[in-house]
Amino acid sequence: MAYTNDIDMVDCSTESSRLAEHAANIKASVNATLREDVMEGYEVAIFTDHEAEERVFQVACQIALHYASRLHWSNYHPWSFYRNKTHDDVRNTAPGLWDAIYPFSTSLGSASHITTALIQALSADSQLARYADDVQLVSNATLEEVKESPQYHSFTMIRFWYHCIVIDLSSQHTAFKIYVGSLYKSPERLVPFHPVGASFQYAYVAGPNGARLLVECDDPVDEEPCKAKRVISGNPESIFLSKPAWFNGRIVDVEGGVRGGEIDYAYRSANPTLDTPLGPMPRRRTIVTQAIWDHAPESPWILSTPLGDGKFLVDTLSLRVDIIK
Known about the structure:
This protein has 325 residues and is an alpha+beta fold. The chain has helices spanning 16-33, 36-39, 50-68, 76-82, 87-92, 97-101, 107-123, 143-148, 257-270, and strands at residues 72-74, 104-105, 136-139, 154-159, 163-167, 176-179, 183-185, 201-206, 212-216, 226-227, 244-245, 252-253, 273-276, 279-282, 284-293, 304-306, 312-322. The chain has one domain (16-282). The longest helix has 19 residues, at 50-68.
């Protein structure tokens, strides 16, 4: 099955000229805010092999759908795995969180599975092996920010000259492309930590000297620019922005890769506790499950993906438990 990229352009009932203006505002804001020496960390090779890059996209889609059909989002299971372990215990033991709680996972867990699988798949193909080093496991928070507030979102990405490939199972079940100078808005759906429907929005921006940045951005219908906070890239340097901008969200490489993600990101996010008569308990745990159906769901809030054989991969259950004193 060949995968296409039918929804990589944002669709929010706004005229195309407004979208183009919004994309231009984002680009101008990013380039005006970040120093040129910082931009050097975001440079990509000008060399482009469209056929090979399309093959990378097909591999990414296959891997994304493989894990989307097998993993269920849960922050209960990491807490259960880590609840009786100290940070030193985690540092001194072999990795194993994501395998131990499989098929449950968080955004970091699914991104860790996918990043590892994509690197292995590309490395095993002599014509695509050169792209293995370009695969990034990224987060929308630095490690220092995670230490202060252990909430973050992770996914897998590869940046090319004309577009980037993103695998973000919270956005959709397959990989998607975002072309340079364009916007992407995921289908609105029920997601963890949001009481109502939410979506993810990104723009791929060109900078000087071959820099390419993927940034989180606000909806094009917003009247005022947001407060700039973070930038999506492989550059680990912290960049604090103070003036209003048309983008928000800095995403950097997960420090230490998959192993570092287990030790420092997953452990911290799994252990925010509330003192109760039963001992330390988490404040909120959420589980979201998927299943394969013979038909598409009727509700527009439910994410589904056609599998090409008359079946659909569907988000089927969202369970949230709040614990209070």
